[in-house]
Amino acid sequence: MIIIMEAHITKESPEFQSLMTYLERFPHLQVKVMEHKGVTRNLLEIHLIGEDYMISQEEIESLPGVEKAIRVTAKYRLIGRHGLLSDLGFEYKGIQFNQDSFHIFAGLCAVDTYENAEKVFKALKENNVCCARMGAYKPRTSPYDFQGHGKDCLPWLFDLAGKYGIKIIVMEVLSPHHIDEIREALELTGNPCGIILQIGTRNAQNFELLKAVGKQKEFPILYKRGYGLALEESLMAAEYIASEGNTKIIFCLRGVRTHLGDPHRNLTDFAHVPVVKRLTRLPVCIDPSHPIGTRIKSSDGIRDIYHVTAQGVIAGANAILVEFHPEPDKALCDGPQAIPLSELPIYLDYVYKVRETYLELKKIVNRN
């Protein structure tokens, strides 16, 4: 069961204290209190974990300060929508993230040089984009491939972000100590930008890492679906993060591994955008670069990455994580799938037009 408190109730309110006293009569239940700072209101939820069949929902809802009580049927109790709850929107660095917002994280898969990072940040600023993707820690299939510069590049990377007004960088972490390295580098440089910690597809079920990013509350999380996992398995992995206390999560679809996707690297799963939004309260991101794996163009002159992006955006995606590089042919990581930086204005124009179409279609369908 999830107990939703009225909007004005806090942990210090007598109504909350009275409810906690009432729940003490059920010692077999685990009581988890969650506070969410949403877009339109703050939400105080009390989750009862265990066999709660003996608790009367009507009696709970009659208690002072209780707005409603919800019987939970889905396994992902914290991120789940449960048919009634509003989405888990959050604000970070002055930017709203929810199931109605829309943002683009464009940049390098892995930071290779100072000059390339600066070129990307400069292009983003010139095109009024304040969010980026930049990889410092990069897992590779071969141990001999470029693994990223790690913590060595963080100070100058964050300085550059501040110089060009980049508010947020999405950055993958592979180990809990990477969180500390990022925090230390931000403090060293005066916290010029924010970081969203990315859990990559290879770590989609690295439960100790999921717990580590969930325990810290400083950085939001972008969780990528595991390329070989069923959707429910990935949603449960996101629940691992939330269960440790951090519900500032963006769920990212990035394609699934199957030869049915050939000649693309993976089979695009962006039809699951509305599914995730229906089942959970999380904003949903798409990564069109990884499932395609190439910059190839169709017969209409439009790159496959553009087409796939449109599929996700028209399905209601709230964010795009996409790779650009000043010189893709010289990139040390995933060069074949990186879009040339010179195309950034074209890509943005394309994406914004698709987003406008989605919003218009949404109005038409919901008119009556």
UniProtKB/TrEMBL annotation:
Q: Which InterPro entries match?
A: Aldolase_TIM, Class-I_DAHP_synthase, DAHP1/KDSA, DAHP_snth_FXD
- Which keywords fit this entry according to its UniProt record? Transferase
GO molecular function per UniProt: 3-deoxy-7-phosphoheptulonate synthase activity
Provide the E.C. number(s) assigned to this enzyme.
2.5.1.54
Q: Which Pfam families match?
A: DAHP_snth_FXD, DAHP_synth_1
Main EC class the enzyme belongs to: transferase
Residue ranges annotated for the DAHP synthetase I/KDSA domain, each copy included: 98-354
Q: Which residues does the UniProt record annotate as the domain DAHP synthase ferredoxin-like? A: 1-73
Q: What is this protein called?
A: 3-deoxy-7-phosphoheptulonate synthase
Q: Which organism is it from?
A: Thermodesulfobacterium geofontis (strain OPF15)
